[in-house]
Amino acid sequence: MTIRNQRFSLLKQPIYSTLNQHLIDYPTPSNLSYWWGFGSLAGICLVIQIVTGVFLAMHHTPHVDLAFNSVEHIMRDVEGGWLLRYMHANGASMFLIVVHLHIFHGLYHASYSSPREFVRCLGVVIFLLMIVTAFIGYVPPWGQMSFWGAIVITSLASAIPVVGDTIVTWLWGGFSVDNATLNRFLVSIIYSPLF
Fold it and tell me: Gene Ontology cellular component (predicted)?
């Protein structure tokens, strides 16, 4: 049996024929360019963020006295921990870049126009949630930048009339940024991909 005949006999198998139809011989329009791949690339970046975040969370200690040391432990003592941390940190930046390119592509091709208004509104909500998630993910390492970033950004809510101070107290979990704040932010970063 020749190689050509072997290939055609494999394609008659249901699994191979399905893979061939969806991965190799997939029909695509002739005007398809690299710009069309940024939505899928954003999804891949999200999966990388979730996977590396889960492995980092396995070694992270969510306590104000131990959080920074647990990051140092990940970097020095965990096998490949430095790679996980840098993949997670740089993956967040890459995710934001890819999403911005995806937004630029949508604006350039007027993908927001009728009948896609709902898709545009949903995209704006997802983008805002992504920005909030990026900020929340900045806090768990609990270095000086994380601590003061948490104070400054959460204190912005105090500018809201009447309920601002209540919102800040709720975000902090008390009257100052402390262990409750770190735990709240860590739990919310773990559950944010579900939204």
Answer: membrane; mitochondrion
